[in-house]
Predict the 3D structure of the following.
Amino acid sequence: MSSAGSSGPAIPTVDLSSEKAVAEIGEVCRRSGFFSVRGHGIPAALVTSAFEETARFYARPLREKTEFNAGVRSQFLGYRSVGQEKSTSHAGGEACEQYRIGRTTGALASGRPADFYHEPFRRCSALFERMAVLGDTLLSACAEGLAQSSDFFDPYLKPPMHRLGLNYYKVGYGAEIANTVDYAMSPHVDHALFTVVAQDEPGLEVRGADGDWTPVPVVPDTFFVFLGDYLQRWTNGTYKAVFHRVGPVTTDRMSIQYKHRPSYSTVVAPLDPFVSAANPPRYEPFDTGSQYASLLASLIGDREAAP
Ligand SMILES: O=C(O)CCC(=O)C(=O)O
Ligand SMILES: [Fe+2]
């Protein structure tokens, strides 16, 4: 395992093409829950074209972007305008424009099909598919790192509800929505097994076990991976979920975040191998269907355009 990062605790880098990768991932998920990956096989040109496509979308006039508005009927796929997502830590909103692609579930009444929301994002959709394969590889390694079989989590991902997020942080967006904090996205833990991030400019920061924030550098050909709530909950805290935020933005910035997620309505609670009389469940069950959907509705509201 090598290290990258100019300040704060070093960020370990795992080379996925190495035989040691599985052991390293297991170790780092217990220790801090975050690491960089290289040797992942996703072409740099695909990531570059996904960023270019994202920039082209955000350069469109607002009235065109709002045709793709996220809401209950889109199952929160699509466009979230600046500040539309409320902060969980201050009175304002998140100082960025956002977009989500992913599949919908038949368990909820759907309006427009997911294809409609993917239409402006052909390259990002191709990247999404590659990320899902990478996500499966990482999840197998996470399982093996827990001394379980590589397919241990597979029954909970049939079908998965992965998401690709495309965020744009323009300088001044915080002031535009009268935020009184200087960071651009509030500290939070993701509702996911883990998240894989590409940034075109630095800005992402992660909180370590010591409570200090570490900036995540932009390193060519690497992605940054951090664990979310669901793996911490399933493993009863053996694996660590990572608080993260986006600091003050001094240069326009984009991020692409891939969230590896279980199927709709999976109830995530500490699993048997991680619970005993000496180690009782430390987390309540969380329903990734109804509980997750009402959380999104409370944070994002419903601005979906009429079909
Ligand atoms: O922009 C980033 O780097 C991270 C965004 C994020 O944390 C999220 O969308 O959940
Ligand atoms: Fe996040």
